[in-house]
Structures
1.
Amino acid sequence: MASIHTFSTFILGLGLATGTAMANPLPYTHGDRDFEGYVASPEGTPRGTVLLVHDWDGLTDHERAQADALAADGYLAVALDLFGTDAVLAGFDDYRRETGALYADRAEFRARLAAGAEAATGLEGAGNMVIAGYCFGGAAALEAARAGLDMAGFVSFHGGLGTPEGQDYSATPAPVLVLHGSADPVSGMADLAALMDELQGAGVAHEARIFGGARHSFTVPTSGDWDPEANAGAQAAFRDFLAARF
């Protein structure tokens, strides 16, 4: 099914689209659960493969639009599903249940990330991958980094930045980019500084872009924290990071 979400360019605010994407579902299984990601494919040979991990409310039009825009820029973009097709996501209690279950079981968290990445490797044109995510997805990208998932880079958009007890970045195989608002009430500047110290100590190449006054979920137009200027800066930094990885 051909699809470019009409608000993709609005979300990016950069005017970067260069081609038309083809969008398709990506069904896969892990254990006894079914999952369904979303694939946006570029015209021609992909410049690289980008995995996107959703916010705490599951895979929505926000992630699909981001994937479409990446595909229009020449990337094979795969929005992963970490909750499964049978997950009930009707409100905050549901979001807390699904994210809480993964935060409480880090082995399962990592296994679902690996299962999505494995499914993406079977796509036509798939190659080296960067994994990125938003809020919960940003925390997931950092979980993937600590797990040593075979990626060319890891990117957190306004994600949770804390490192769980017993984890570290000693196995992280590639650079980390953190895109964060200075007014984020979920993970503050002290959390960001601690993460930078951890990455420096582990010898992991890293970079942070801080957007002054931006709050949590600044990339999401439907959020009360939507910040077009901060979003545009974050998306530009993301594109620069991808260009350096592929």
Note: Residues 184 and 215 are 4 Å apart (CA to CA).
2.
Amino acid sequence: MKGTEAESKVEKNRNSSFEFKQCVSILKSTAKRARDLRELREQISTVSEDSIFHHTCQYFLKGRVREYTNDFAQWTGETLEESALAEQLSNIDPYVFRNLSELRKALLSVIDDYLENFPEPKAAMPGEDFCFNETISVVFSAGIKAKNLAEFLVAIKYVDSASIYYHFYEARTRLGGKVDDFSRWFEDVLRERELAEKIRCIDPFMHSIEGIRTHIVEVVEEKVKRDMTVTGTGK
């Protein structure tokens, strides 16, 4: 009995640390293309969920903020110059759906409504087709752990941007809603509910991954400094 209790305590302590993980995505072509909006709609209805995931949820791995928030909206707006539709597609938050099937239906619904009002959209110029891709994601430990906010603050400044993506963006698909790995650890393990809420209030659509890193650093740094002052170790 004592041995079991000791093992449980060790496991609890191990799980209390935040382990940064790395995410590497290997791009794979599906050989499927779309030259116009109707073909885009047809392909979205049949491509794999991995492809839907890549062109929506993994959009932020591109590392920079674009005008729109997914590849479908980007191509529709820039290439087809259908800005109204692009805005509607861009307003679809891929992280609020329970599964990718629901996300696919939402994309198709927006396109169908648009085609009903504008049945003859223009086609893309030669060489500017939309190419459907998918990715194989490999997740592994980055070899970095944090036991408290101070250690977390040091780590978050230097981990690879793909790690930020995995824990802040991809986690929303795994955990559901607006929950990410960082805020969940702050709240569940460190009991820092206010800090967790501040992290969840960072808009994932308004910043690049590096912008997200900067905001997280600012919020955590402010908390660490405030704690140092309260305990009398700050100036």
Note: Confidence is low (pLDDT under 50) at residues 1-14.
3.
Amino acid sequence: MSAEEIDKGDATTEAESFQDPHTPSKSAENSLEAAIGTQVREFRQKLNMTVVELAKVAGLSAGMLSKIEHGLTSPSLSTMQNLAKALHVPVTALFRRFEEERDASFVKAGEGLKIERRGTRAGHQYQLLGHTVGKAIGMEPYLITLTDESDVFPIFQHSGVEFLYMLEGEVSYRHGSKTYIMQPGDSLIFDADAPHGPEELHKLPIRFLSIIVYPNPKVS
């Protein structure tokens, strides 16, 4: 492959990158090779280097560097070290575009699922704001609302650790033998296997986030 062909191919690549700089080719989308190639090309372009120039500094052939930039080959660790050195970046910078799929739970404002828990009988309103899926640790975030129809109920007990964050109102919240007066902006984290819950409602309505984290028995 001649230098002229490399530069021509490089110009085409740069034009495609300008049109959509964040999208790798569909055939190699989300692959590690494509992610590394994209990063190498972007760092090279920032330094105003041609493929031929970078290949020479990194001790590679222009053809091999072109394949790396297009995600057509998996570079060895030593090759990546040489490229990183030539580009004046850490090796880890070449992995920035690689993202494995992760589960996410998104809930729009006001669309949390209303569910029943022990406190529902005492007039406590629960909105589930999402949940983790298939992980060793389970997490359940709730938006809890207490009104003039709510009763005090300081005897909740369940597994895990719970985190509270006050949004509105004022409440005396008991955990074990201690009571905490909670106002907007206050937070509390505790072992949830001890008796806990609102002991006195001072200023209504009361709204707070409750995030419960616990071992997931479904995952070994």
Note: The chain is about 25% helix and 30% strand.
4.
Amino acid sequence: MSKASASPVGVVAGREEVLVLPREVALGPVPWHGIRLERVSEVLAAIPRHGRFLPRAEVEGDDRWQQVIPHLVVSCGQTVLAMRRLGRGSERRLRGQVTLGVGGHINAEDGPLEGAFLRGCLREWAEEVVSPAPAKGRLVGLIKDGAGEVGRVHLGVLVMVTAGAEGVAVREEEKLEGRLLAVSELEVLYLEMETWSQFVYDRLLRGVAGPVPVTGPEITLPASPAGPAGRLGG
């Protein structure tokens, strides 16, 4: 195990600390791959008991720890937000790929382990998306890519988001370009999608003409109007 500090709120000077769970807690006793539309409540409940904030550099190559990442798939009517990662994104291994999910690491700065996932999820929403009106999200399942270099150390928490009629737009235009596309238009981007987004498309979007029916714990994502990144209402 890493000898890094397990402090839930501490930050090692100059190093990003990210939320992780032990592999056996995050994934269960049997390895799996793809989307599981269950266990999300169990995993989130485990964070206060078993989660830690560890230096990202130490866990990027250590799959004994699973970095917990919100993956918010945003729909507006019969369209879905599709984004391409540009050269200034922090994860060089994903640059140029298409993603259907908004999200990123939960950091030590998101506060104590109790509630850190939700606070980090709301922060990522505010930082990455322009949304003139509040949106509703449902935490519907987990995403795991056990084969890829990136995927083997990350566990996605799938959040299906229904945006208001005003739609949404990408805020971090230096890192992402994107727009709302009809589900039928996503097929041509399939081979350029990250694996997680391919899982979402295959399991929940392909062949669906209207909004995707989902169930799960609900969260409210506040309006984040155009303005400086991450500043609600400004």
Note: The first strand starts at residue 17 and ends at 22.
